[in-house]
Amino acid sequence: MQNHPLVARRLRVLVVFSFLVLWASAAFAQFSPQDTVPVDQRVMRGRLENGLSYFIQQNAKPEAKLELRLVVNAGSVLEDERQKGLAHFVEHMAFNGSEHFEKNELISYLQSIGVSFGADLNAYTSFDETVYILPIPTDDREKLLNGFSVLRDWAGGLLLTEADIDAERSIIVEEWRTGQGVDQRLRDQYLPVLLQGSMYADRLPIGDMDIIRNAPYEDLRRFYRDWYRPDNMAVVAVGDVEPDEVLGLIREYFGDLENRSDAPERVAFEVPEHEETLITILTDEEAPGIQLQLFYKHNPSSSLTVQDYKDRMVRLMLGGMLTQRLDEIRQRPQAPFVYAGARYGSFVRDLDFFTTTGAVTSGNTLRGVESFLMENERVLRHGFTESELERVKRSLSNSSERAFQEMDKMESRSIVGRYVSNYLTGAFAEGEENRYRLYSELLPAITVDDVNQMAKRLLRDQNRVLIVTASDSDKEDLPSEEALRSLFEQVKHMDLEPYQEEEVPEVLLSMMPQPGSILNTEDYDQVEVTAITLQNGMRVFFKPTDYKNDEIIFTGMGKGGASLYPDEDHYAASYASVMVNVMGIGDLSPTALRKVLAGKNVSVTPNISTYGETISGSTSPRDLELALQLMHLYFTSPRMDRELFDVYLENQRNQLETAQANPDFQFNKRLNEIVNQGNIRGMGLFDPDQLDRIDLNRGIEIYRERFANAGNFEFLFTGNLDLDQVIPLVSRYLGSLPGDPLVKDTPRDLGIRIPRGLSERIEVGRDDKSQVILYFSGPTDYDLEKSQQVSYLGEILTIRLIESLREETGGVYGVGARGGLARIPEESFSFSVSFPCSPDNVEMLTDLVWEEIRKIQQNGPEEQDLLKVRESKRINLEENMKRNGFWHGQLQAAISADMPLETILGARDRILGVTADEVKAVANAFLKRENLLEITRFPLSSINEQ
Q1: Which label site among 207, 347, 676, 758 has the fewest CB atoms less than 10 Å from its CB?
Q2: CA triplet 263, 266, 270: central angle to 5 degrees?
Q3: Preceding peptide of 498 cis, ω within 30°
Q4: Is the pLDDT of residue 946 over 80?
Q5: What is the Cα–Cα distance from 139 to 65, expressed in whole angstroms?
Q6: Rounded to whole angstroms, how far apart are CA atoms 236 and 803?
Q7: Whole-angstrom Cα distance, residue 62 to residue 135?
Q8: 488-500: burial string, b at 16+ Cβ within 10 Å, e else
């Protein structure tokens, strides 16, 4: 086979890149443990004379965009007693009037240049810092300058007028209301235990709502004056602009900021250590099951030297290996927990921790805690095995190598965070090349003893905290604090055997299948796609790209799914692919498969949905053959292991039983019933008794049937593809699958339709919050232009609702509208508006939604809103056209719908061509009460108040 033109170009790129990798490896110098870990050599960093720090890196992906961050080294921990919540309040005020942007003008301007509020433009406040996020287009110098003007205003130009402050109070209260619930109630009780004795325990970022509602204006302004100063801030800029130009702009816009002579000192806050083990047992009527959190608290880890870097690697390995052991225990009959994992992390600036967390079933709290302690003790006494160490080494090595290979293709938004962390905490910002160098040198030298010694440092008797949270219904079965405390000593005296693991095969396939022949080859030159037809009837499409060096995405699509089976097979068909994922393939259990694939970039998942079946995943060029072998096995060799599936069912049963009291679960269950009109073929599984209807044997039989005919499948591969190598592999592993080219399945319409012209009230939970969902749907001819018009309508209405419901009324924290068209099971549209709010404001806010809808229906969208959405979509499309995931999704949709592959090339015209009259027309056609399903959630406490 001759090289395809695209293949020849890709081969040249790969040869050059391979040479660079070999050259870089040869040039690596050895590290000494006390050497300082270098910062990524691509970053320009320093300080202005006024103390403002900066980090600048030029990065070409995506083109014409600069990711900007203003990093303020101040969060809620710096508030005084009168200011609880005002650090977060200041963050809100950054979008409400500044020196160069009047209230609401900032968001409107940024939307006009394609920067979406929330999705792009955002900010967050934590205990220790506040970070502002601004991606700015750079295709026009005025946009770039305005972006720096925005950042400069945040740093020193907020107006903080009384009217604007008062208007924002209710919005913050609504944000607080959105976060209310069982998780918040339990967290508010156990955080003071975890952070005992520290300022953090009394400084949650959301703050005190009485202070938010009533704080004097000067208290807010004082926080801004005290902490928003150049010696306490950094500007991070990563993107498609020359570093010298960015540095010049930073000097121009931030150089005149001054530090106050009487500014308070930025002090650190300690979390005191404690000798005793702190234990807290908390219950709540809405808690979903029993959760266990075992913390071993530590002072923050140093991030300076090569030895520090090695220690971080060892901590990561320790968490990974212990998690793998816990996962093996989870899959055993009568396991002591439903799931569990271990990791090293940090919570606040002065607190690192090693933790084991998980969930247990009713009556198993003592067993669960005991198992956590036993596995930790087993590690302390007997350590890990060489095979465990080698697997985790392979995984880490693969991760660092892939990142190194992709360093020239990384997007700016995935880079910028490392410099934010480096400024705030001194975290490593070594970059992909240095990481690869460090991993290449340090990983081979890490021994089992290194990991075992790290375990002894982390799993200590002091500074421990055990948190148990459970439902009120489990209160009587929970052990006492004394019983839990005694476990720590009991486990120390137990007779524990070393960890033993079963041997696993070294290969997936012991015998290679014979390749199938290729009947036909087609080239779709306009979209640079090649397609082959195999003798079993399978069509395979290949889209080679150079957007990533080490990424291949694939999807195999078959039609039919669970719809082809009668109602009595519903549960078996719906869980058929779950069964295989739970039980494994060939001779490999999921645990064994994970071990075989350790260090490999292979992810493959089969799925059977209502109207089709898929097998999808991702891999890299070097691991593609392994991924194809895995696909071959998923088609031909699902594994039967009743014991594993019974364990899965028991865990599912316990989780469903404990979830019944949770209001979010109750709401979703009722919503599911309403949307599917009680039809079991469209509903999820919410009741434990439904698990008894899953027939394992029938499920595996259905799975085999759905994957028996390769001729019913079409495959798409997108990414770094060398067709000379890929096509023979596909012919061997997919072309050898049994199939009949003449048999093509067609999904059966199950008649599931969303009800229309209906209003439902759902009453759950005791928190004072509601949710409104307006869901419009109905039949309509599928049309790509109309689909884009409906999408426009959703984004335009979102802009209007943010302005009306949030900024003008202060009734919501967030609100969104979205819509689209579908083909299966019938050609139809759907459109939804959703927002959380106070129960008292449901009617008023719903009326406002209808008012905004009617404005668009009567007058069409405002021209400025249409242009905002058009610009945002234009920028997103230009960026997406250089991403594998976008091409893969668009081509997959075209293949599934039997549309021309070239359809994707018309996306720009469809986006730029939407008019105000078209948006008005779809608003009038679709957003009608006869098309509406209105769902409103209220708390139970409001039943008697209505």
Answers
A1: 758
A2: 150
A3: no
A4: no
A5: 8
A6: 30
A7: 11
A8: beebeeeeeeebe
Surface-to-core class of residue 848, CB atoms within 10 Å of its CB (0-12 exposed, 13-18 middle, 19+ buried)? buried
CA triple 195-198-204, angle to 5 deg? 70
Name residue 310's amino acid. K
Residue 842, helix vs strand vs coil: helix
CB 600 within 8 A of CB 624: no
Label residues 157-185 b or e (16+ Cβ within 10 Å = b).
bbbbeeebbebbbbbbbbbbbbebbbbeb
| Domains contained in the chain, CATH given | 43-254 (3.30.830.10), 278-492 (3.30.830.10), 518-733 (3.30.830.10), 758-945 (3.30.830.10)
User: DSSP per residue over 512-553, as a string?
Assistant: PPPPPPEEEEEEEGGGTEEEEEETTS-EEEEEE--S-SS-EE
Among 499, 465, 292, smallest CA distance to 387 is for 499
Q: Read off the tokens for 538.
A: 């399978």
Q: Is pLDDT at 17 greater than 60 in this prediction?
A: no
At residue 590, the pLDDT reads: 94
Q: Which two tokens stand for residue 737?
A: 């699958």
Q: What is the pLDDT of residues 531-581, one digit of tens each?
A: 999 999 999 999 999 999 999 999 999 999 999 999 999 999 999 999 999
Distance CA 170, CA 811 (A): 7
- Cα 281 to its chain centre, rounded Å, is 30
- Please return the burial class of 319, using the count of CB atoms within 10 Å of its CB with bins 0-12, 13-18 and 19+: buried
Is the pLDDT confidence value at 398 over 80? yes
Question: Residue 918: CA atoms inside 13 Å, Cβ hemisphere, count?
Answer: 17
| Token pair listed for 502 | 């079963």
Distance of CA 326 to CAs 323, 329, 343, 376, Å? 5, 5, 12, 10
Edge-to-edge strand order for the sheet containing 758-763? 758-763, 932-938, 770-779, 828-837, 816-822
558 and 614 in contact (C-beta within 8 Å)? yes
- Beta-bridged to residue 935, according to DSSP, are 760, 773
DSSP lists the bridge partners of residue 779 as 828
Amino acid at 830: S
Coil, helix or strand at residue 58: strand
Nearest alpha-carbon partner for 791 in 845, 753, 759, 829: 829
Q: Identify whether the C-beta of residue 239 lies closer than 8 Å to the C-beta of residue 134.
A: no
Average pLDDT, the chain: 94
712 phi, psi to nearest 5 deg = -90, 5
Between CA 427 and CA 826 the distance in angstroms is 53
Q: The tokens of 483 are what?
A: 């019983």
Q: Which residue has the tokens 């081509």?
A: 891
Question: Is the alpha carbon torsion for 882, 884, 885, 891 positive or negative?
Answer: positive
Tens-digit pLDDT profile for residues 859-914: 999 999 999 999 999 999 999 999 999 999 999 999 999 999 999 999 999 999 99
Reduce the DSSP state of residue 592 to 3 states and report it. helix
Specify the 3-state DSSP secondary structure of 832.
Answer: strand
How many Cα atoms within 13 Å fall on the side-chain side of residue 153? Answer: 23
Beta strands 529-534; 518-524: pairing state: antiparallel
Cα three-residue angle 463-465-469, rounded to 5 degrees: 175
CA atoms within 13 A on the CB side of 694: 24
Dist. CA 76–CA 152, nearest whole Å: 22
The position carrying tokens 């290969």 is 507
Compute, in degrees rounded to 10, the torsion defined by CA atoms 94, 98, 101, 107.
10
User: 47 with 54: CB under 8 angstroms?
Assistant: yes
* Average pLDDT for 47-74: 98
